[in-house]
Specification:
- By secondary structure, the protein is α/β, with parallel strands linked by helices.
- The chain is built from 13 helices and nine strands.
- Helix 6 packs parallel to helix 8 and helix 12 runs parallel beside helix 13.
- The protein is globular, with a radius of gyration of 20 Å.
- Bound molecules: (3S,4R)-3-hydroxy-2-oxopiperidin-4-yl beta-D-xylopyranoside.
- The site of (3S,4R)-3-hydroxy-2-oxopiperidin-4-yl beta-D-xylopyranoside has 7 residues, from loops.
- (3S,4R)-3-hydroxy-2-oxopiperidin-4-yl beta-D-xylopyranoside binds next to loops.
- This is Beta-xylanase.
- Belongs to the glycosyl hydrolase 10 (cellulase F) family.
- It catalyses: Endohydrolysis of (1->4)-beta-D-xylosidic linkages in xylans.
- GO terms for molecular function: endo-1,4-beta-xylanase activity.
Amino acid sequence: AGLADAFKDDFFVGAAISTDTLMQDDQQLLGLIDREFSSVTAENCQKWEEIHPAENQWNWEASDKFIEFGTQHNKHILGHTLVWHSQIPASVFTGDEGLPITAKALLGRMENHINTLVDRYRGKVNTWDVVNEVVSDNGYGSWRKSPWFNILGKDFMEHAFRTAAAADPNAELLYNDYNMHYPAKRGFLTGVLADYLDRGVPINGVGFQAHYSLEDPELDEIEKSIETYAEMGLKLHFTELDVDVLPKAFDYMGAEISTNFEYSEKLNPYPDELPAMVQEKLAERYAKLFALFVKHRDVIERVTTWGVTDAHSWKNDWPVKGRQNYPLLFDREAKPKAAYHAIRRLK
Ligand code: XIL
């Protein structure tokens, strides 16, 4: 029947579920997810700022609903994401009375966060995104100067994996990041991960976020990445796939976007609907990507799209407001797009 069924001999096909969908108990969308997908990720509700906004405060409601949905419908369940520099309260990195926090105290907070979350869903969450995005965007060859790194040094990442593995020895543990195909980033990460595998740090695989566009990255760059990480013995997940159809906004940033007609037209070229020609390009791009994934099905465990319908994609209004994007497999009315049919035709 659904998309996931078509690829059931290859890999899980998943979708991220938004906090709104869970809290509103949106039966139309949840029904669609149940029919089409075999794996689910929480888009935001398990992030530190949402689930653990203050030291002794936990908001379990949306996350519990997410786990309940996944369990009831027999989905491969992702936990997302334990240790990240983003969407985390600044108070985590602040000591008593506003003094700088000690390394020991911060490690304690990290352990408490991981233990509480992983323990609650032990035996239910199949795979955790343990650590997210540790590489600097400046040259891609060094550690990101996040508070985690600045206070704890590079070992914060290893510590997170060891803590998660102790909390649920049966869960699969991933490192998750974007642009993992950049040569400098690939070089840096394979160095870190090879050392982990050598020393027995518990990590099972890597997540390629796969926030792609119509042209970038090229297929052979993606394939080279698949081969490089797989040769190390790591399992591969495509964790947040979407295909941006809009021009790169960063090329125009700094311009008076909202007041300058020329720029706003360039940045939001499809305010009403996606022209048939671009629909076709998107379909071709998705079909080529899925054909590549099928080719490497022995090492790819899962392909998850970051959302379900274009209406709710984080790629709308990003990185500037007012943009209408079309990155997913279902349109704003939750109807399957040409891209969906193109993927189905592979099977
Ligand atoms: C995004 C969500 O989709 C948005 O709703 C939120 O405002 C910001 O985060 N990398 C990740 C995801 O690992 O958690 C991010 O999700 C997208 C980038």
